[in-house]
What does this fold into?
Amino acid sequence: MSRLKKGFIGVIIVSMASIMAGCYLPKGVDDFSVMGNDTLSDLVRNSYGDGNLTPENSFGVSGVGRISKSKMELLANDLFAKQERNKIEATFVKNGGNCVEGVVQRDAVCSFVRKWKLKNIGAPFDTSNWSDPALKVNIKFRFDEHDRMQDLFLEIINVTECKEIRG
It folds into this structure.
């Protein structure tokens, strides 16, 4: 048998083995269905990206590390562009967030927390030890002299509470 054929067969065997191994392991994926259908939850859902986007905050292929800060900033800019301060604050309060005065009179800091679940799409496994991913989003708004949104600065904080693994 030629070297080329042996190499090709080896690649097929390795590929099949890795596919089969994946069938026998649990695999967690983010499940946002437990979040509400509100404006702020949509910001989180629509900011989901491919791969680990915030390696300094988390690791792996699921959880807070998959939320793109830059994507969320763009979405928030579009959502709140030119809105008046009281309308922005009302949006946060209505959707389970809050706002406080900033250090500077023309600033306000609004925040919200969202939590979701990991769903097992792999082999049967007790997922009760899996932590539910959670994040806190702080958005510092800067308003112009007419109290309309001029700019925003966004921060994502991983607030996932790790569960104790039971034996």
User: Anything to note?
Assistant: The chain is about 30% helix and 25% strand. The helical segments are 3-23, 39-45, 69-80, 85-94. The two ends are 51 Å apart (CA to CA).
